[in-house]
TrEMBL record:
Matching PANTHER family: 2-OXOGLUTARATE (2OG) AND FE(II)-DEPENDENT OXYGENASE SUPERFAMILY PROTEIN-RELATED
Non-haem dioxygenase N-terminal domain sequence ranges: 43-145
Keyword tRNA processing: no
Family matches, as InterPro entries: DIOX_N, IPNS-like_sf, Iron_ascorbate_oxido_reductase
Name listed for the protein in its UniProt record: Protein DOWNY MILDEW RESISTANCE 6-like
Domain of life: Eukaryota
Species whose genome carries this gene: Spinacia oleracea (Spinach)
Amino acid sequence: MKPIAPAFQWADVNEYSSSSNLEKYTVPVNHRPNFQTISHDPIPTIDMSEKDNSLLVQNITNACKEFGFFQVINHGVKRELCDRVLDVITTFFELSYKEKTVLVAKDHMEDGKIYKYSVDDTVEGKEIPMWSEALFHHWHPVDHGYTLKLPEKPDRYRYISF
């Protein structure tokens, strides 16, 4: 497995005791959200039981344009499966830094890898790491070859069954 890129660093809880360490995670004012312009409308809900496909597509399009995301209801995925997936992904993100480090990628679309986002501060000329990490992978219900790209830990990650 490839070692972590030198520029990558986990946000370690122990770092937060030092104000100089906290500063590297502080996003400059010009990159922070303007809460005066943020919508306080509820998150768009997409109902997959909608019979009119053109209306469904239009609702998804509008949600993406206006919010960038949406909640899906009546999707047909059993609650038990949703709970198992949430449980295993939570367990994954609770793994130690050492266990997750082998999955770090520079490309945010690399299958089965972790990506840490950052903000480029063009004024100061530096990169500011964000306090989040994202795991990206495809999920295909028929072609099980994709599972080889999934994380090996926690053990049950690759074997959540429908």
